[in-house]
Amino acid sequence: MYSKTLRVSARALLQCINRRANLPNTHVFPVGHGRVGPSRLYYETAKPVNSLAGDACVRRVDLRSDTVTKPGAAMRQAMAEAEVGDDVFGEDPTVNELQKMAADLFGMEAALYVPSGTMANLIAVMVHCRERGDEMIVGDLSHIHIYEQGGSAQLAGVHSTTVTNLPDGTFDLDQLESKIRHGYPDAHYPRSRLVCVENTHNIQGGRVLPLHFLQEVKSLADQYGVAVHMDGARVMNAAIAQKVAPSTILKNTHSVSVCLSKGLGAPVGTMLAGAQDFISRAVRCRKALGGGMRQVGILAAAGKLALRDMVNRLEEDHHHARIFAQALLECEPPLYEVDMAAVQTNILRFRLRDPSLTPAEFCALMARVGECDGATTGQGIEVLMFPHIGGSIRAVWHLGISLEDTQLAIEKLKFVARQHSQKRHRSE
Ligand SMILES: *Cc1c(COP(=O)(O)O)cnc(C)c1O
Q1: What is the pTM of this model?
Q2: How far apart are CA 176 and CA 145, in angstroms?
Q3: CB-based contacts of 192: which residues, under 8 Å, 6+ apart?
Q4: Ligand 1 within 6 A of 345 CB?
Q5: Atom of ligand 1 nearest to the CA of 261
Q6: Which residues of 30-65 are buried (b: 16+ CB within 10 A; e: fewer)?
Q7: Ligand 1 contacts CB of residue 382 (under 6 A)
Q8: What is the H or E stretch that residue 258 is in?
Q9: Closest approach atom of ligand 1 to CA 198
Q10: ∠ at Cα 273 (82, 309), nearest 5°?
């Protein structure tokens, strides 16, 4: 009776808030959120609420990726007010400002705004490897190798060879050296032109590449006249975790791609940066790939806010990921396994101790909602995450996930562990 009344009045309140905020009824502002820092203003703070069995409200905590964030009022306003021009003519002032800002921040001569990280990486490959059949060396678990459809072969005519990615995202330097070709111009061999590193390393769970590793890769590459490109989709997370300027990391690379649309929260876009000559060639490749955009200052305006206001708050995501990881370790009954030393940024990988529960089944349990009786049992909380490579599960923190969301997700993981252990005991 009590909970019914509470539910009805909560719903009335939500409707009232939604009306005032001019939001559809499927959205609600998070009431009683923990700390709401100023950067949240740049974000869509509305939380999706699923309607289930009549009036049950379900709180969603979306840990699938840091790509799911949505721009909020401040970012949308900056987009609406952006000064624009034809960027293919180099006449969009907002894009030009963003490119200047990025080049300064990264300590590079120039930067270019491109539609996606995938295109930025492909352009970098095309500029560094200009002869058909040139070869690049990539980590066997790198995004470029696994998740970009082999665009470097498909579209750039570049051959790849791999080095083995170690659990910390690095690779062995002797193996790297052994992969550099020495036979050019013997007709049997391609020519080694490029080494790609990924920082933070996505598949290896947001691992930050040590600075000494980057220095060693660079000096080896210099020795053989090979370029170094960093897929730095999340290099700002690395800079925050290492407490260094991004330029300190990037002085060890010839070029870098940095996503604005992940933890930094812009809706679209990636910065590609490098030397002036590299960027001049990159402009040509971008056009050939169909990435020359016109009044794109509308999007670049969001990118400027992302670089200006969203970098420092990444620490909050790292903090929440650690809190969640610690809760996995301490969960009673024990079901989860996690290496705390590997939790460095906003991506968390963990495992289940019980092989009879698969990662896919576990993710389905985390996302399944029962009666809406909220945080005390975890049943009213929908937590989204993905099964990941090697039997692990991946969860990613971002601007859309508050401390309160993290705590709700922790309630849910405890709930799932209790349910699973009860089920096991019944079947024994
Ligand atoms: C997301 C990502 C990319 C590609 O970015 P898109 O904008 O999705 O094309 C490249 N590298 C890494 C490591 C990423 O995480």
Answers
A1: 0.88
A2: 16
A3: 134, 135, 136, 137, 179, 180, 181, 184, 224, 226
A4: no
A5: 7
A6: beeeeeeeebbebbbbbbebeeeeeebbbbbbbbbb
A7: no
A8: strand 255-259
A9: 13
A10: 45
Atom number, ligand 1, closest to the C-alpha of residue 118? 9
Contact 384, 362 (CB under 8 A): no
Domains (range + CATH), the chain = 2-62+313-427 (3.90.1150.10), 73-309 (3.40.640.10)
Check: CB of residue 255 under 8 Å from CB of residue 129.
no
Q: Which 3 state secondary structure label does DSSP give 19?
A: helix
Task: Please list the pLDDT of the chain residue by residue as tens digits (428 residues).
Answer: 334 433 434 344 334 333 333 333 333 333 334 444 556 666 665 554 554 444 457 899 999 999 999 998 999 999 999 999 999 999 999 999 999 999 999 999 999 999 999 999 999 999 999 999 999 999 999 999 999 999 999 999 999 999 999 999 999 999 999 999 988 889 999 999 999 999 999 999 999 999 999 999 999 999 999 999 999 999 999 999 999 999 999 999 999 999 999 999 999 999 999 999 999 999 999 999 999 999 999 999 999 999 999 999 999 999 999 999 999 999 999 999 999 999 999 999 999 999 999 999 999 999 998 765 555 567 789 999 999 998 999 999 999 999 999 999 999 999 999 999 998 888 77
